[in-house]
Design goal:
The protein is of the alpha/beta class. The chain contains five helices and four strands. It has a single domain, classed as Lumazine/riboflavin synthase (Rossmann fold, 3-Layer(aba) Sandwich), CATH 3.40.50. The mean pLDDT is about 95.
């Protein structure tokens, strides 16, 4: 049975709780062993994944960053996303990135709704991406 670690930035608790719930429901329905670690912000996600890289088959990064008046948003998002991608490539481990990046709280809420008919919840999207990568084996043609 594959083990997946969800690393959740709980800075925006209402947003991240919905993301975690959606990801967890999909993974549990398919009998994955699911673990979670909460971190204070998205910038702490890559180091948490790195510390646990050998213990799990895949990872899901969840959280939310909302743009403010300064370049902080751009710096945090860029460095975090680059670090997540580097970890995935360096260790050949799937990492689903379900970090919501928006200009305002209303957009973040729309992307993290438990049931959203227009767009899937970003937590469930990240879980589906990881499942797809774990199941992606070469096929004889």
């Amino acid at each position: 049975m594959k083990k997946i670690l969800i690393v959740n930035s709980n800075y925006y608790k209402d947003i991240s709780n919905n993301l975690v719930l959606s990801a967890k429901n999909i993974l549990k329905a398919l009998n994955f062993k699911v673990f979670i670690i909460d971190v204070p912000g998205v910038h702490e996600i890559p180091i948490t994944i790195k510390k646990n890289i050998k213990k799990f088959d895949a990872f899901i990064a969840l959280g939310c960053v909302i743009k403010g008046q300064t370049p902080h948003f751009d710096l945090i998002c860029s460095s975090t996303f680059n670090a997540i991608m580097k970890l995935s490539i360096d260790f050949s481990k799937p990492i689903g990135n379900g970090i919501v990046t928006t200009f305002n709280l209303k957009q973040a809420q729309a992307r993290s709704k438990k049931l959203n008919n227009k767009k899937p919840n970003k937590g469930s999207e990240a879980a589906k991406a990881v499942i797809s990568m774990l199941n992606n084996e070469p096929k004889k043609i």
